[in-house]
């Protein structure tokens, strides 16, 4: 079972990201006509279901829910035709063999963990062991902190995060033997992208919204224009592709958002809900991005099993 490590800066929305990933599966993998099926490992059910209930009721995960989630295991099955969750093809048959399974591991505070690791903490070494052996890394990038001007006041905060991700990738490289030809799949997820500074995007001659998920070339150019300024060390590391025994695959890029209702007296900021296709309500969020991400995770799982 491949491990997918999830890292993010403070308040980048790691727990909300996981809850919406689960919501996309619940809403799009439960009906007979759907192109995929899913179930969650029993040991992960309590953790993710509590967060899911909060999000579906319009609340962001509370502190207890955030602290409770350290790792989630998903099992995904697919129809034969297309294999893709977003594919419109339909088939009665399902792919042979066991479902693709992925273990999502959350690093709660990356900067602190890497600081302890640099100091030689045995606790940090034990906590990061599964992280170092991961098959993919989902790097969450807070859209509110992106700086596009030559001198941005927020660049310092993103710079610290860039240092931490670069240090983690270096440590992951050092943990693999030179004869080990294993691969690491970088996945960049821009969270809270509905809150990105549109004026900064316009100044950089960029569109308000990224190209649609299937336009991979245009999407790559759009994402890398943002990352080259904000995470230059991380991008240099990933572009090196091959260092020692660890090979970086071509990165993939996703853009996440969830509409919100501003805080009011006596009430916290809430998630805006919308009518779902089958009746009921769901968060107003970038569902297609999450379905495409699930498709990417399933391919990593299938490749790891071959």
How does this model look, in words?
The chain is of the alpha/beta class and 306 residues long. Helices cover 41% and strands 20% of the residues. The protein contains eleven helices and 13 strands. It has helices at residues 14-28, 42-56, 63-68, 110-118, 122-127, 129-132, 155-174, 198-203, 216-230, 232-240, 287-305; strands at residues 3-8, 36-40, 71-78, 100-106, 136-142, 183-191, 242-243, 246-248, 252-255, 260-261, 270-271, 273-275, 281-283. Strands 1, 2, 3, 4, 5, 6, 7, 8 and 9 form a nine-stranded mixed beta sheet that branches. A hairpin with a 5-residue loop joins strand 12 and strand 13. Helix 1 crosses helix 11 (287-305) and helix 9 packs across helix 10. The protein is globular and about 50 Å long. The N and C termini lie close together (12 Å). The relative contact order is 0.18. Mean pLDDT is 82; it is low at 85-92.
């Amino acid at each position: 079972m491949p491990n997918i490590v999830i890292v993010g800066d403070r308040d980048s929305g790691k727990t909300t990201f996981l809850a919406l990933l689960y919501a996309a599966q619940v809403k799009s993998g439960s009906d007979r006509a759907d192109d995929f099926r899913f179930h969650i490992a029993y040991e992960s059910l309590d953790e993710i279901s509590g967060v899911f209930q909060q999000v579906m009721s319009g609340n962001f995960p509370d502190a207890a829910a955030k602290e409770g989630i350290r790792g989630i295991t998903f099992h995904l099955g697919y129809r034969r035709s297309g294999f893709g969750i977003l594919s419109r093809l339909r088939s009665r048959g399902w792919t042979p063999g066991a479902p693709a399974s992925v273990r999502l591991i959350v690093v709660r505070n990356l900067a602190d963990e890497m600081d302890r690791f640099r100091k030689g903490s045995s606790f940090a070494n034990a906590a990061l062991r599964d992280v170092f052996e991961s098959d993919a890394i989902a790097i969450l990038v807070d859209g509110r902190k992106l700086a596009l001007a030559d001198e941005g006041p927020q660049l310092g905060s993103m710079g610290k995060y860039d240092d931490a991700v670069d240090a983690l990738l270096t440590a992951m490289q050092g943990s693999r033997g030179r004869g080990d030809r294993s691969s690491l799949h970088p996945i960049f997820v821009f969270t809270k992208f509905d809150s990105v500074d549109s004026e900064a995007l316009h100044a950089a001659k960029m569109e308000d919204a990224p190209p649609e998920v299937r336009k991979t070339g245009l999407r790559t150019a759009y994402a890398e224009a943002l990352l080259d300024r904000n995470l230059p060390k991380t991008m240099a590391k990933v572009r090196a592709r091959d260092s020692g025994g660890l090979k970086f695959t071509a990165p993939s890029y996703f853009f996440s958002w969830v509409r919100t209702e501003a805080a009011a007296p006596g009430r916290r900021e809430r998630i805006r809900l919308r009518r779902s296709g089958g009746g009921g309500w769901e968060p107003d969020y970038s569902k297609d991005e999450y379905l495409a991400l699930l498709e990417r995770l399933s391919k990593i799982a299938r490749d790891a099993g071959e």
